[in-house]
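hiii, so i know i said id send this last week but things got crazy w the move. better late than never?? heres the sequnce for the chain we talked about at the cafe, plus the structure i predicted for it. fair warning i was half asleep when i ran it
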Amino acid sequence: MFKSKKLKTFLFALSTTMALTIFTKHNAFAAAYKVTSGDSLFKISRLFNTTASEIKSTNDLGSDVIYPGQVLNVPAETYTVKSGDTLFLISKRFGISLDALRKANNKWDNLIYPGQKLILPKGNVVSSQPKAVIPYTQDDLDLLARLIQAEAENQPYSAKVAVGAVVVNRVQSSQFPNTIREVIYQRINGYYQFTPVLNGTINNPASAESRRAACEALNGADPTNGALFYFDDSATNQWLWSKPLAARIDRMVFVY
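okay and structure toks below
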């Protein structure tokens, strides 16, 4: 029998739709998430904007029990890191929280490299406190906030976060001491590394905004792309200007 032209068109459209549906369903869970300590199906479902039952169904789980190291298929896209990327910039680009990006990839330091694949979560982290990228006490937080206040009081908020990020980057670097206090009070060849320590403005109280910026930096926000030094654009120190540029925020210059 010969099918009519209209029937052929309908059947073709139907088969195409079914194929697309199957393809879409097959690829809906496109990322592999590794379970970490403290995870639950509920927390993971919130992170990827799905449900616990959907994760169970997709991964053929017979119960709610999961264990660290287990790999689950989750509904998320992946992103390939490019040169110049930072976790902070990637989170801003895709409109997701930095903490959620870190949790989805179990990535609590700032080290990423071109070609690396990162999972892009769609939801939020179920956690009372974000995880800091370096250890710190309340005294450390206060000290860092006071440094930010002294160095960037009249600068944009992103510059305040950036000042804090430089201190965090130094703590993480093998070139500098490994605590916030030691980094801020460090002297090299007899010279303090931070002017507020020399002139005493480090002792002035910090504003609420400077404390918030310090918290963001301690939780991994880094608008500087990993800088280890900063100065304002009126500086005449040629050694600083000769260093590779990491970022410029208003009048502040950040270098490696």
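btw The first strand starts at residue 31 and ends at 34. thought thatd interest u
miss u guys!!
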